């Protein structure tokens, strides 16, 4: 497809690299208002696999999207850029995933090799810390260059450093002004999972226990339908967390309440500055069949698009976002997952640009 014909702004002489960029937009990082950091990471994924391929399949599917959008119009003209996928990070993910798998296997077998389990677990935790530190620094660089920020994972542990950097950037008197809109099937508030301190299942626990200037002032969760009692109790214990569990939310909808009314309630819990953390499994699994831990129920694409539109109309500002857990499963490619992921990403990009005008 000749992507240059999709916008009068981009002349036919500009070429598009196959290593970086996204949506077929032929602009350099310096020319783009919004910069996306890809994080090909899936060390502690427990059930499915292929989340580290997320940036690649989303990028591949992204060239098919028409740039003009009925809601965000020509927002893309400000430029959207995705950095090249780091081979070093991808290799590190591959190497430490093997160690994490070994830990899970030994624990499942009730192995008495306690020393081995401890050593491997510590190594995996160190690798996760290193990843988080890298993501934090890369995010800071993008923000300090005056760009809008997005991240594509990877499993849901990928954005911890990014959320900390964005919260820190938007803080006053040592407190962050940012609220997180977290769309997910899972609450992700486990203190640790299989001994791993920074797993995908602990991201929001870690976010809400970050140092004061680096943690959001509010966490608002939507689509949540898979969590354990420990997670439920953690949510209840925190006045800075508001969870819209999927079943009671759907009951309101099924009794005839409008989605507009429900979405307004969700938005009213958020401060003016919003960071969106979007786990693709928050959607009904028909939209993400290859994701690692699918759960029945969930949101439709229409409901999410409606929510984003209403968020923008409310005058809120999207100060950063991540999209994670878009996966290939066992396959090399998963076209449908990439297609849905790319469309979700495009809306997130468009609304980020529009709400920062
Ligand atoms: Mn998640």
Question: Can you describe this structure?
Answer:
This protein is an alpha/beta fold and 357 residues long. It has one domain (3-355): Ureohydrolase domain (Arginase, Chain A, 3-Layer(aba) Sandwich), CATH 3.40.800. Helix content is 39%, strand content 15%. It has ten helices and ten strands. It has helices at 54-62, 87-108, 114-144, 160-169, 203-208, 229-237, 246-254, 259-268, 301-313, 335-355; strands spanning 34-39, 80-82, 148-153, 171-172, 175-176, 178-183, 218-224, 241-245, 273-279, 317-324. Strands 2-1-3-10-9-6-7-8 form an eight-stranded parallel sheet, sandwiched between helices. A hairpin with a 2-residue loop joins β4 (171-172) and β5. α1 crosses α10 (335-355) and α8 (259-268) packs across α9. It is globular, with a radius of gyration of 19 Å. The mean pLDDT is 95. The structure holds manganese (II) ion. The site of manganese (II) ion (MN) has 6 residues, from loops.
What are the defining features of this structure?
single chain; 357 residues; alpha/beta; Arginase, Chain A; eight-stranded parallel β-sheet; 10 helices; globular; binds manganese (II) ion
């Amino acid at each position: 497809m000749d992507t240059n014909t999709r916008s009068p702004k981009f002349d036919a002489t500009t070429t598009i690299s196959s290593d970086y960029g996204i949506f077929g937009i032929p602009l350099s990082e310096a020319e783009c208002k919004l910069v996306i950091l890809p994080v090909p990471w899936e060390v502690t994924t427990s059930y499915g696999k292929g989340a580290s391929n997320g940036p690649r399949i989303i990028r591949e599917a992204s060239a098919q999207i028409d740039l003009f959008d009925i809601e965000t119009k020509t927002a893309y003209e400000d430029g959207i850029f995705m950095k090249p996928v780091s081979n070093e990070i991808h290799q590190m993910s591959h190497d430490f995933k093997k160690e994490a798998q070994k830990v899970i296997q030994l624990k499942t077998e009730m192995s008495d090799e306690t020393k081995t389990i401890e050593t491997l677990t510590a190594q995996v935790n160190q690798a996760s810390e290193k990843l988080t530190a890298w993501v934090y620094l890369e995010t800071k660089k993008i923000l300090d260059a005056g760009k809008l920020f997005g991240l594509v994972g990877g499993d849901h542990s990928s954005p911890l450093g990014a959320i900390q950097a964005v919260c820190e950037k938007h803080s006053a008197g040592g407190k962050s002004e940012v609220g997180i809109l977290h769309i997910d099937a899972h609450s992700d508030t486990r203190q640790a999972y299989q001994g791993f301190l920074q797993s995908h299942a602990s991201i929001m626990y870690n976010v809400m226990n970050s140092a004061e200037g680096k943690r959001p002032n509010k966490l608002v969760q939507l689509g949540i339908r898979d969590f354990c009692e420990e997670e439920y109790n953690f949510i209840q214990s925190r006045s800075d967390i508001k969870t819209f569990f999927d079943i009671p939310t759907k009951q309101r909808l099924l009794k005839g309440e409008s989605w507009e009314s429900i979405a307004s309630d969700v938005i009213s819990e958020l401060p003016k500055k919003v960071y969106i953390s979007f786990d693709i499994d928050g959607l009904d699994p028909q939209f993400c069949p290859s994701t690692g831990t699918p759960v029945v129920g969930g949101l439709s694409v229409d409901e999410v698009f409606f929510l984003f539109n209403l968020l923008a109309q409310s005058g809120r500002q999207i100060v950063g976002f991540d999209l994670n857990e878009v996966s290939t499963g066992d396959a090399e490619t998963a076209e449908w997952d990439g297609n849905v992921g790319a469309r979700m990403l495009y809306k997130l990009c468009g609304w980020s640009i529009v709400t920062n005008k």
